[in-house]
Amino acid sequence: MNKKTTISFVLGATISVAALYISFRNVPVDDLFKYFSSINYLWAIPAGLVGLSTFIFRALRWQAILKPVRKISFLQSFHPVMISFMINCILPGRIGEAARPAILLKNEKIPFSTGLATVAVDRLFDIVYMFILFSVIMANITIDPDFAVDFGGYHLNKEVLSLAGKDMIGIGVTVIPGIFLLIFEKTRNIINYLISKIPVVFFMAGDSFKNKIENKICIPAQKILKNFSDGFLLIKSPKTMFICICYTIIIWLLCALSYYLLSFGCPRINISFTGFTAVMIIVCFFIALPSAPGYWGLWEAGGIFAMAIFGVSAKDAAGYTLINHVIQTFPIIVTGLVSAALTGITIRKVGSMDHEG
């Protein structure tokens, strides 16, 4: 690992260890193992398969996003998606996000910045949908007004969760207009014009220095802006937008169903499908923080906290969350490794292709 990756790993590992300690400090090890022995693991099979099936729709969604840029087959979309998620499960810093545009650059000669923009759009669908879903669910689920959890120095209660839902809407309202600035030609032209005028700021410098600024900063920045905005071409197609929204809804419904199915094999986990949707989203918010590979620690912390909202004890929640974490990540790693073998892509190649972009 290079220095940057090492620092990322150490920082993430520290956060994950702290999260694991906070999550399990009040859970006796003996009780945890007793809970593991009481689980009906047959339910892990449908839960794992349903979870893995979401990546079919992720691949279809990314394929649709890429269509205005380059038409690719389902497998050309599926393999990079699986490889990127697999890398995120085994390496720090979420460098797997760079795998998809890197593979596109190698196989389809699509500029890295354009490929990265399509990945950004792909993730944007998830983020916006999560914000909306979280806000709707938190407004409709019943939470005891006296509910409160002290977690890692934070006092969390119903009011805090409601405020978080409103904040999510605020973030979405801020981000989406920013994306639209890159979509329309007029606003892009204004941004390009402002970039071209950067050398004017250095009016005291000579022509040689201004030319360097133009060649080293302005022209590359304008090229990146063009390539990046190309990735957002799908917004101009209402049909593609509708298809991607449908895929996003299916993805998150299947994710929640995977969580829900596992609960049938776990004693004393009596949470509704809607409740598990809330649990899933809260786990996603937790693992958005920097963490060790595979999100260990933060996943468990998010699950234990979220399930406490629905009256599940820390011991039962810890047992369920650990098993669920394994079920959700192990199939991704296996399938991602198979995809990497079939396409001849290695993690080292992804890193080198990134630099080429």
Can you tell me about this structure?
The chain has one domain (56-289, 322-356). Helix content is 75%, strand content 2%. The protein has 15 helices and two strands. Strand 1 and strand 2 (154-157) form a beta hairpin. Helix 3 runs antiparallel to helix 11 (238-263) and helix 4 packs across helix 14. It starts with a helix and ends with a helix. 38% of the residues are buried.
How would you briefly describe this protein structure?
Its main location: membrane. The protein has 357 residues and is mainly alpha-helical.
What is the strand and helix layout of this fold?
Layout: H1 3-24, H2 29-38, H3 44-66, H4 74-90, H5 99-108, H6 112-140, E1 148-151, E2 154-157, H7 158-183, H8 185-196, H9 198-201, H10 207-230, H11 238-263, H12 273-287, H13 298-308, H14 314-343, H15 347-356
Antiparallel strand pairs: 1-2
Helix pairs in contact: 1-13, 2-14, 3-4, 3-6, 3-11, 3-14, 4-5, 4-14, 5-6, 5-15, 6-7, 6-10, 6-12, 8-10, 11-12, 12-13, 13-14
Main location: membrane
Subcellular location: Cell membrane
Pfam family, one: LPG_synthase_TM
